Inverse folding.
């Protein structure tokens, strides 16, 4: 099977002569388009799983991921609302690179807020019993 042309940004199949991707609208200037082999499953060609990312974008994704997890951890100890907000934003940004992991970061942020709220409630209950 001959290699077909695919968009370097979204992985959609495109015509060799096209200047813009028909799926995402990205510019496909000469020298910027890439030729990739589509992933196959049996006799079917699956272009949905073809992803081409730049090294800089991968690095930015790693920053979003690490920042998201650090924000989740900090939300348990320091200013929960602030760091949960950061974690939600960074998790949402990371969804561009890994949809599932980005969603996990966002769920962990909300879970961290709930856990912090429960810790405060238990602490208040214990404090009120000591005072009484």
């Amino acid at each position: 099977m001959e290699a077909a042309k695919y968009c370097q940004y979204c992985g959609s199949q495109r015509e060799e002569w096209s200047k813009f991707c028909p799926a995402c609208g990205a510019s496909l200037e000469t020298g910027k388009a890439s030729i990739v082999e589509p992933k196959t499953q049996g006799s079917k060609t699956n272009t949905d799983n073809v992803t081409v990312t730049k090294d800089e974008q991968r690095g930015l994704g790693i920053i979003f991921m690490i920042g998201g997890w650090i924000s989740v951890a900090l939300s348990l100890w320091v200013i929960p609302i602030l760091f949960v907000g950061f974690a939600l934003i960074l998790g949402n940004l990371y969804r561009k690179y890994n949809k599932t992991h980005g969603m996990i970061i966002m769920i962990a942020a909300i879970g961290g807020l709930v856990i912090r709220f429960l810790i405060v409630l238990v602490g208040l209950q214990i404090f009120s019993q000591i005072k009484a």
